[in-house]
Design a protein that fits this description.
By secondary structure, the chain is an alpha/beta fold. It has two domains: about 90 residues, Winged helix-like DNA-binding domain superfamily/Winged helix DNA-binding domain (Arc Repressor Mutant, subunit A), CATH 1.10.10.10; about 240 residues, 3-Layer(aba) Sandwich (Rossmann fold). The chain is about 45% helix and about 15% strand. The protein contains 16 helices and eleven strands. Strands 4, 5, 6, 7, 8, 9, 10 and 11 form an eight-stranded mixed beta sheet that branches. Strands 1-3-2 form a three-stranded antiparallel beta sheet. α2 packs across α6, α4 packs across α5 and α11 packs parallel to α12. The longest helix has 21 residues. The protein is globular and about 65 Å long. Keywords: Methyltransferase, S-adenosyl-L-methionine, Transferase. This is SAM-dependent methyltransferase. GO terms for molecular function: O-methyltransferase activity; protein dimerization activity. Pfam families: Dimerisation (PF08100), Methyltransf_2 (PF00891).
Length: about 350
């Protein structure tokens, strides 16, 4: 390696650290864009910053600076000085799109969640949940006490499920089952996608009353009211019987191993002969994988999610071995783990009764 190569590598390393250090600022830039509805105001054409500012009730110069920052992040394009359009990536910040990620952005940049991250080092030292320490209650109790935040959370979970809802129906053999219960299924985005693709399948959506709040409207929009029952309850106490497939997506990672075992045990208790439990979550490799394009296979997002579980709710992302252990403790055995290629980083984890 020549001196020039060494210098170039050193500069790249410095750029990586600086870019990561600016990460929270980039996230808050997205939050400001979402709150000001910048993408909706620009629309499908080129618009002058002054016009966007006027429509947003903002000052012209600060708006120009925001739009240029969004351009630097790849979300807008500046054609002539002070004139901008939206890139395909930036269009995902439009709340008017069915595949919008606006609510997800607002949740992940929500000051309540960010505040707990300020105490990440403390959580690592002690294993304690920073959120509980800071707010004096757990995250989900806090959600129940703050309806506006609960609405954002539910919308964010729906948006996060959209890609999986498109990919999952053709990635698993749902045709061998008669009834599917989506445990912790929220507004039904994922279950609706499965039922749409499999007309002979009946569905049960199971969540807390707050979690189900938007489900009736979602199911009515999709014409699934007659095929899908809504049951409010607590999966730490029980899971409704009567299905031969129990689906659990993005639920177990919110909880400790002991709590995950409790949820899975309740599924095992009502699982009929030949029934299955299908877990949809990221599966961490035994060793962090890297590529030439990123410092982890998914850019490190799953590992950041793991830390988010630590500081905000006390859960964790898991390896295959971790899933095998919690399933075994619940009386279940893993039969397969299949990456969901069209909805990275999720995998399909199929389990049967021991």
């Amino acid at each position: 390696m020549t001196n020039t190569d060494v210098l170039a590598a050193g500069m790249a390393d410095r750029e990586l650290i600086v870019r990561l250090a600016f990460g929270s600022m980039a996230a808050q830039t997205l939050r400001a864009a979402a709150r000001l509805r910048v993408v909706e105001l620009i629309g499908d054409a080129q618009r002058r910053a002054a016009d966007v500012a006027a429509d947003a009730g903002a000052e012209h110069q600060p708006m120009t600076r925001l739009l240029r920052a969004l351009t630097g992040l790849g979300l807008l394009e500046e054609h002539t000085p002070d004139t901008f359009s939206v890139t395909p990536a930036g269009a995902l910040l439009s709340s008017e799109r069915p595949d919008s990620l606006t609510s997800l952005v607002r949740l992940l940049t929500e000051p309540v969640l960010v505040r707990a991250w300020e105490h990440l080092d403390g959580s690592i030292r002690t294993g304690d949940i920073a959120f509980d320490t800071v707010f004096g209650t757990d995250f989900f109790t806090h959600l129940a006490q703050h309806p506006e935040l609960s609405l954002v959370f539910n919308a964010a979970m729906s948006q996060a499920a959209g890609e999986t809802a498109a990919a999952l129906p053709s990635a698993f053999d749902f045709g061998r089952f008669t009834t599917i219960t989506d445990v912790g299924g929220g507004d039904g985005t994922l279950l609706a996608g499965i039922l749409d693709a499999h007309p002979a399948l009946a569905g049960v959506l199971y969540d807390t009353a707050d979690g189900l709040a938007q489900a009736p409207e979602k199911l009515q929009q999709r014409g699934l009211t007659e095929r899908c029952s809504l049951i409010a309850g607590d999966f730490f106490r029980s899971v409704p019987k009567g299905s031969d497939l129990y689906l659990i997506k993005s639920v177990l990672h919110d909880w400790t191993d002991e709590q995950a075992v409790t949820i899975l045990s309740h599924c095992r208790e009502v699982l009929p002969p030949g029934g299955r439990v299908l877990i949809v979550e990221p599966v961490l490799p035994d060793v962090v994988t890297t590529t030439a394009q990123s410092h982890a296979a998914d850019g490190g997002i799953t590992y950041l999610s793991d830390l988010n579980m630590l500081v905000n709710v006390g859960g964790r992302e898991r390896t295959r071995k971790d899933f095998e252990e919690v399933c075994h403790r619940a009386g279940l055995s893993l039969t397969s783990v299949t990456p969901l290629a069209e909805a990275t980083p999720y995998s399909l984890i199929e389990a049967v009764a021991d």
